[in-house]
Prior knowledge:
Layout: E1 3-9, H1 16-20, E2 29-34, H2 43-50, E3 55-59, H3 66-79, E4 84-89, E5 93-94, H4 98-109, E6 116-123, E7 128-129, E8 137-140, E9 148-151, H5 153-158, H6 170-180, E10 185-195, E11 204-206, E12 209-211, H7 218-234, H8 241-258, H9 263-279
Parallel strand pairs: 1-2, 1-4, 2-3, 6-10
Antiparallel strand pairs: 4-9, 5-10, 6-7, 8-10, 11-12
Amino acid sequence: MKLLAVxxxxxxxxxxLANIRTYLPGVDCLLLWDNTPRDCIDRExxxxxxALEKSVYMGKGENVGIGAALNAAVDYARQHGFTxxxxxxxxxxxxxxDFGRYLEAVRNWGADARAIFSTNYFIKSxxxxxxxxxxxxxxxxxxxxxxSLYPLSxxxxxxxxxxxxxxxxxxxxxxxxxxxxQVPTLCFRNILxxxxxxxxxxxxxxxxxxVFPNEYPPARxxxxxxxxxxxxxxxxxxxxxxxxxxxxLYKRVVFxxxxxxxxxxxxxxxxxxxxxxxxxxxxxRKGL
Length: 288
């Protein structure tokens, strides 16, 4: 297994180097794809990232979206003879030697199997794992971008990531597309990747219940709504539209009005997301 890792950067914070070092020793090469706009890049942090061993720094000086960044990594892997790709978010990290155990588990399963491999996730804001931690490999409907490992041959068979989604749902869509071709997504439930969901900042009380608003900025708010509607049209068997909108639209309106900042911008993003989703509009939405 010749393994390329890619981490997509976007205004990375001071933890990004420590996060990367939890998996860097286990890969053959690391592609750092930077979606941070050129005039917003922290030059000191950029220098530290570029100094990482066995790393390659790429980007276009603008945010091209998650899918386009991952597809650039697929192309790089093809051109340089890699057999597998593992993808990461900038805020994810492993504890101790969990990445080494993950790679060993994949090899023991069969690294060239026609499958997508994924970890379990320890959700930091909730201080709990996504799935029960057990010594089992379970088939799941989809996996997050971070920690997913793909035999490169899958991209020859299935095509690349759906870059027109820009952000949100790109990981799910590829897994759902794979499932239609009888390619399973496998989760190693005893391997934990520390990860977080969204921009959750603080818990609140609403009608006597504890709630945890997901305070996404306007652009991400828009894509969450729009892409959910679009993906339901493409994969009605995989995404429950009512449940998606209940969380990402209806509840979000309440949370924005009661608790969040930038209320008008976020409410406008929610409306445009619903409208463009119904229209089937894809690609980047400017002016959010």
